[in-house]
Design brief:
With about 475 residues, the protein is of the alpha+beta class. The protein has 4 domains: about 80 residues, SP0561-like (Orthogonal Bundle); about 70 residues; about 150 residues, Four Helix Bundle (Hemerythrin (Met), subunit A), CATH 1.20.120; about 120 residues, Beta-Lactamase (2-Layer Sandwich), CATH 3.30.450. Helices cover about 55% and strands about 10% of the residues. The protein has 21 helices and 9 strands. The strands form 3 sheets. A 5-stranded antiparallel beta sheet has the order 6-5-9-8-7. Strands 1-2 form a two-stranded parallel ribbon. Strand 7 and strand 8 form a beta hairpin. The longest helix has 29 residues. About 5% of the residues have low confidence.
């Protein structure tokens, strides 16, 4: 028998069944040979050349090893023909399989240089959308989001050469991506100023001011979390959003830590460098993975939804340039504004406008989640404690919280639905204010669970009240 890059694995195993265990012992990637489904599908057409590419093992090593094992077990001498390996044109499914294999090997501790060489041999031009799909599939297959986040920097480094070739298309002024990128340029300018500080202790006041400027980046993150990510989720793309949200929280925590240490004059160059690296890496991931992927995925109508609530959240350092204004967004806002009608309530009647005015004038922030865990309302008060935007409407409440808080959200909702609990209270101190947060199980007249009401209130001034006040003293 002659071994070439085009020799089919199925034919080889049919003639020499013992090779299956031999190949698995050579490389764990061959474990798929144990799968009957795999052997009935790809196994029938997979060649040694293709298998070598998927496993990362050089064909020049694989074929002689097979020949030696066959000779050892049977005494038969196979001819190894070192032909030119077949040209590989991977299907989308194959490309994703290769990418996932590389990331799993990173997770297992395989040397990064080895995996980089495999990547360069297999896929020299990866698309940002494929990286997003890879993350989505790995999460769907059971890899924890925290592990994807931990590997994110590593796999971007492995794919960086291919990603660097991706040219960001020129975006019209006013488009959400154009605004994001303008903010990134401003962030880079501030970061550069920080990097050029010569003495951290002598220039502490300047460093504090620059870090305060960097803090405005939170509005950039909030727009992604509340406007862009919900639209991606509606397209079935949630994994990359969750990973990036977790990275946002890492940056927020690091920035808070660094600012605190600068105030105490206890910051080290390494800590500051770590923060700068995290910020620069986020810009890279946005502009080489997230934004190209979203531009490939979202329609103009989708971008209209993204844009519709950005003004309410706000922007970092800049005002968006005028230009790109989707008609659908303006029409949607106009239609919402024109909705009116009267409601027959238990103790009277109110128009829709009056209901809206009442809810937005209450000294509390309200959010309502229906029985299907979907956010269907929030009160758009003038000075909300926590930011909200129209992108949250229709979104699952679990996706509206950072990954580290999801377990607590699920526990509250489970207890409300089971009927074992009716309220959950929390209080926190934020920006020098005392915030009281309450969750109420909402049930109808028959006791059926219909949703959850969140009420947030700044009670700082209320807590300080003493005695009585009976007279008006404006």
């Amino acid at each position: 028998m002659e071994l070439t890059s085009k020799t089919k694995v199925a034919d080889l195993l049919a003639r020499y069944p013992f090779l299956k265990e031999f190949l698995i012992s050579m490389d764990a990637q061959f474990k798929s040979l144990d799968s009957p489904v795999m052997m009935k599908t790809l196994g029938r057409v997979a060649t040694l050349g293709r298998v070598a590419l998927f496993s990362g093992m050089a064909l020049e090593k694989l074929m002689p090893a097979i020949a030696d094992e066959v000779n050892r077990r049977t005494g038969e001498a196979l001819t190894v023909k070192r032909d030119e390996a077949e040209s590989m044109q991977h299907s989308p499914e194959e490309r994703l399989g290769i990418l996932k294999g590389i990331i799993r090997d990173l997770h297992a501790g395989t040397d990064r240089k080895v995996l980089l060489e495999r990547f360069q041999r297999l896929i020299k031009d990866v698309a940002p959308t494929e990286i997003a799909q890879m993350e989505q599939q790995l999460i769907a297959e059971g890899m924890p989001e925290a592990e994807i986040k931990k590997l994110c920097d590593v796999h971007v480094q492995v794919f960086r050469e291919a990603l660097d070739k991706k040219v960001m298309p020129g975006m019209p002024a006013g488009h959400p991506v154009h605004t994001y990128m303008l903010e990134n340029r401003q962030a880079e300018a501030i970061i550069s100023e920080i990097e050029h500080l010569e003495n951290l202790k002598d220039e502490r006041a300047k460093l504090e001011g620059l870090l305060e400027q960097v803090s405005a980046l939170d509005r950039h993150f909030l727009r992604k979390e509340n406007q862009l990510f919900p639209v991606l989720e509606a397209k079935g793309i949630s994994g990359p959003s969750k990973v990036m949200w977790a990275l946002h929280d890492d940056i927020r925590a690091m920035l808070k830590d660094v600012k605190g240490k600068v105030k105490k004059n206890a910051i080290t160059p390494l800590e500051l460098k770590t923060l700068i690296t995290m910020l620069r890496d986020m810009i890279y991931k946005e502009e080489h993975i997230l934004f190209p992927m979203t531009l490939d995925t979202l329609s103009d109508d989708d971008w209209a939804k993204v844009m519709s609530g950005e003004e309410e959240i706000g922007f970092a350092w800049i005002k968006p340039e005028k230009g790109w204004q989707p008609t659908s967004a303006a029409t949607q806002v106009e239609l919402m504004a024109n909705k009116a009608g009267s409601l027959n309530l238990d103790t009277g009647q109110l128009t829709a406008e009056q209901v809206n005015l009442t809810l937005t004038h209450l000294p509390v922030d309200l959010s309502f989640v229906n029985e299907d865990d979907e956010v269907i309302y929030y009160s758009n008060t003038e000075d909300r404690i926590f930011p909200r935007s129209p992108g949250i409407i229709g979104r699952r409440v679990q996706n509206c919280h950072p990954p580290k808080s999801v377990d607590m959200v699920e526990k509250i909702l489970d207890e409300f639905k089971s009927g074992s609990k009716d309220t959950a209270d929390f209080w926190i101190q934020m920006r020098g204010r005392f915030i009281y947060i309450r969750y109420f199980a909402v049930r109808d007249s028959r006791g059926k669970y219909r949703g959850c009401l969140e009420v947030s209130q700044d009670v700082t001034d209320i807590r300080s009240l003493q005695g009585q006040k009976r007279l008006l003293d404006w």
